[in-house]
Every structure is written in structure tokens, then in C-alpha cells.
Amino acid sequence: MVVQADLSDAEVDRLFHALADATRRDIVRRTLVGDESVTALAAEYSMSFAAVSKHVAVLEEAGLVTRRPDGRRRLVRADPERLAQAQRLLDAFERVWRHRIDALDSVLSTPTATP
User: Fold this and answer.
1) Residue 113: pLDDT band by 50, 70, 90 thresholds?
2) What is the largest CA-CA distance in the chain?
């Protein structure tokens, strides 16, 4: 059983690398409900504006958020469809591992003949 993704290996790597960081996951969570400026996002973390901007860039590169200009501000919004892609990929991995565990259970529960 092979996991078939609608994403390339490089895209999967970028996606899960982006989601591996707690600050980036929080940025995605906060921008799912509506647009947030990078400045407003930065105000919530004990790090510099530049550091938050780099987190947003990683998310943007992974396709998890989009950034658009609004006057002098840059508004960030999460892409729910990209999150759904990640969920589908995780679901596929879960099916693979459940299948493997079921196969192992079957092998281990089969009585063996003693000579």
C-alpha cells in the first residue's frame, strides 16, 4: 500500500516543515478566521517583527497562507484547502500504518505448528 499524494515530495516537505513550528501553527490558526496584518501578528509574540515576517514567509512558501498588500499593511490569510490537503495526506499515512498493524496482528495471531 503506497500513499498517493496530490503534492510533490518537495511540497510535502515544505508543508510539514512549516507546520512543525508552534508559532507558525498559531499564525495559521489565527489567520483562518480572518485577515491579520503582519504587524498585528508580531504584536502577539515575544519576537521581532522580522522574525514573525520570516515565519509568515515559510508558511507562504508552503502555501498555507497568502499575503496581500492593503495600503501600507500586508494582510495574511490562511488557505483552508491547503490544510485539507495536509489532512488528506495524514489520513493516507494513517491508513497505511493501520493496514500494516492489522497484517502484523494477523501474522502474530496465527498459530504455528510445533515439530
Assistant:
1) low
2) 82
| Integer Cα distance of 26 and 112 in angstroms | 52
All three cell numbers of 90, joined, read: 495524514
pLDDT tens-place string over residues 49-66 = 999 999 999 999 999 999
Q: Could you say which of 3.10.450.50, 3.40.190.80, 1.10.10.10, 3.10.20.30 is the CATH number of the domain covering 9-79?
A: 1.10.10.10
Q: Which residues contact 39 (CB under 8 A, 6 or more apart)?
A: 49, 73
8 A C-beta contact, residue 37 and residue 47:
no
Tens digits of residue pLDDT in 10-23:
998 999 999 999 99
Q: Are 18 and 24 in contact, with CB atoms under 8 Å apart?
A: yes
Q: What is the dihedral of CA 63, 64, 66, 67, to 10 degrees?
A: -110
